[in-house]
Amino acid sequence: MTASAVVRLASVDEDALLGAAYLMTQDAFVLVTCKGKAGAVELWPKKKTSPAVLAEAFRREYANQLLRWSLTRDGLGLRAETLRRALLLA
User: Residues near 75 by Cβ (< 8 Å), separated by ≥ 6?
Assistant: First the structure.
């Protein structure tokens, strides 16, 4: 079996972790584990890809997911206010 890449994170955002893991399923088989605030992802390549490349790709996807989830959470109040105003006008 091909060597796997393991990425360990001391503190994780679970939504971002799962989102990044899902995006990696195109290129790798993925196992996600969480314990307390820590998390880890093990990646087995589906094609001939080095574990280091998979680990770096996962780190990029996780950083992107952190940003996406941060923006989503920050925008909830704005969307709620916009909906409230729209309902008042209806």
Answer: none
For the stretch 37-68, pLDDT in tens is 999 999 999 999 899 999 999 999 999 999 99
Read off the pTM.
Answer: 0.79
What's the token pair of residue 54? 């998979």
Distance between CA atoms of 31 and 44, rounded to whole angstroms? 9
DSSP string, 23-51: HHTTTEEEEEEEETTEEEEEEEESSS--H
- Residues in the chain, total: 90
Query: What six digits make up the tokens of 68?
Result: 């996406």
Q: Are strands 38-45 and 28-35 parallel, antiparallel or unpaired?
A: antiparallel
